[in-house]
Write a structure and sequence with these properties.
Layout: H1 2-18, H2 29-46, H3 48-59, E1 69-70, H4 73-77, E2 111-113, E3 119-121, E4 123-142, E5 160-169, E6 177-181, H5 183-187, E7 214-222, E8 227-237
Parallel strand pairs: 1-4, 6-8
Antiparallel strand pairs: 2-3, 4-5, 4-7, 5-6, 7-8
């Protein structure tokens, strides 16, 4: 049996040489393969949390509504507050990620696992903040849902843009969290003009330099270099006892 195998290998090498292809070394590929396997294992270990979060987002697109959890504003930013940093925040999920895996998801996961292995809630409610800036992001618009939401055109081929702003704790002037009323959420009818719990127009009446206290709900997300509630899902005046 070994002789037949040897003759077959020799014949194969002759055929390759006839075609101008060098015959493969007998064992030269093994060290290279071993190195590649080690590199792959290291990368998987390093980005394991990111991969799990991404798979959860893809495999559970219809997860039920999450229950908002009261969160201390400064706990989202962590010890670096008022600076923006992943380091120290309990919402950090990987080397460059934090919060939900996809900021435009219509059904984000209700929990993510942070770098300490803890399951942390993603939908939070922050109270006693003010809206310092607010605008329509004409540079961030679309006419279709993102891939995480199916990728279909928006109803009636409409175009929606993000509505964005910054919120800060009452009595402070630094340490903001960015908020975004997402375009996909608006196209789905979850936020927008005259939607009582998430009115993207009425809120402009309450923009202030710290004189109007508001409460917000939204999903925690780390966007490159800052923390966000994206998507922001609801807001109200702090003086209102109940959410719309």
């Amino acid at each position: 049996m070994p002789r037949a195998t040897s003759r077959h290998t020799s014949y194969t090498n002759q055929r390759l040489e006839a075609l101008g292809v060098s015959s493969p070394p007998r064992s030269g590929w093994r060290p290279v393969a071993a190195v590649l396997v080690v590199i792959a294992l290291v990368l998987i270990g390093f980005y394991w949390t990111d991969l799990v979060s991404f798979v959860i987002a893809i495999m559970n697109p219809q997860e039920g509504p999450c229950t908002p959890v009261m969160e201390v504003f400064t706990d989202i930013l962590g010890p670096p507050y008022p600076a923006q940093s992943l380091n120290g925040s309990r919402y950090r999920t990987g080397p460059s990620t934090g919060g939900i895996p996809h900021k435009r998801a219509l059904s984000p996961p209700c929990f993510v696992r942070n770098t300490n292995g803890e399951a942390v809630p993603t939908l939070v409610a922050v109270h006693g903040v003010y809206l310092r800036t607010y605008s329509l992001a004409l540079y961030d618009c679309s006419d279709h849902f993102k891939y995480v939401n199916g990728g279909a055109p928006y109803p009636n081929n409409q175009v929606f843009c993000d509505n964005v702003g910054d919120i800060l704790l009452m009595g402070t002037t630094t340490g903001q969290i960015h908020i975004e009323f997402d375009q996909d959420w608006q196209a789905k009818g979850l936020c927008g003009p005259a939607i009582r719990s998430c009115d993207t127009v009425k809120i402009l009446d309450y923009r202030s330099n710290g004189t109007v206290s508001l409460d917000f709900r939204g999903y925690v997300y780390w966007d490159d270099d800052h923390w966000e509630l994206h998507p922001a899902t609801a807001w109200k005046l702090s003086s209102d006892p109940l959410w719309p």
